[in-house]
Write the C-alpha cells for this entry.
Amino acid sequence: MASFPSSVNEKLIARSRTVGELLAPTSPFDKKCGRENWTVAFAPDGSYLAWSQGHRIVKLVPWAQCLNNFLLHGTKNGANAASTRLPRQSSEGGQKNKPCEHVIDCGDIVWSLAFGSSVPEKQSRCVNIEWHRFKFGQDQLLLATGLNNGRIKIWDAYTGKLLLNLMDHTEVVRDLTFAPDGSLILVSASRDKTLRVWDLKDDGNMMKVLRGHPNWVYGCAFSPDSSILCSVGASKAVVAAILV
C-alpha cells in the first residue's frame, strides 16, 4: 500500500469535500422506496445521475442542474431543491435529448444500474439488421436495471420509457456493465453463477452465457477496448474472458 507524507494527506483531505446529499423519501407504509440505497451510476456523458431509492424505485436526476442546486443552496437545501425543482419531461413536448428528471418503478428490488450510449457505426452482430424492432441513434442513452427476480429492464433515460425486458437469469442480477465502445453490448452478473452477454442492438437477444464461477458472481467490468471481460464472485478469484 502506498504511503504519503502527512502534508500530502492533509491536502488530499482538504480537496475532498461533500458537495451535496440526495435523500430518498421515507414511506414506512410503502415498500416502493425509502430503504437502503444499494446502487448508483453516472451516465457516460455526465448528463444523468441514477440511484436506487431502496426498493423498486430508481430516480434519474439531471446532474448539471442538481450540482447547480447544491452550489446555490448548500448540501441539505440542495438535496431538497433537487427533489422538487428539477423540470420533468412532458408527455407531448420537449426535446428528447434534454435531460429531465424521471422516477421509475422497476417492479422489484433494484440491485444494479448501468448506463449505455450508442454509436451508430457499431452495428449489431445479427445478420438480419432490417428486422430489428429498435433503431438506436447517436443521441440514445439507455439505463439498465438489474432486479431481485433475475430480470433486466432497459429504459430510455430521456423519456423514462421501458424498452426491453430481458429474462434469462434465475437469481438476483448483482451487476451490469456496458461495453465502452458504444456497441450496446451489455453483460450481467448474477447469483445464478453465470454472466450473460446481451446485444441490445439486436433487440436484446442474448449472445452467450459465460460459466466458470463456482459460486455467486458479484461484479464485472470491460477492458477499455471492450475485448476482455473480467468478473469476480464468492470464489475469491478474478475470471477473465475474451469476447469475440
Observations:
- The longest strand covers residues 110-117.
- Residues 32-66+98-118+139-214 form a domain with the Methylamine Dehydrogenase; Chain H fold (CATH 2.130.10.10).
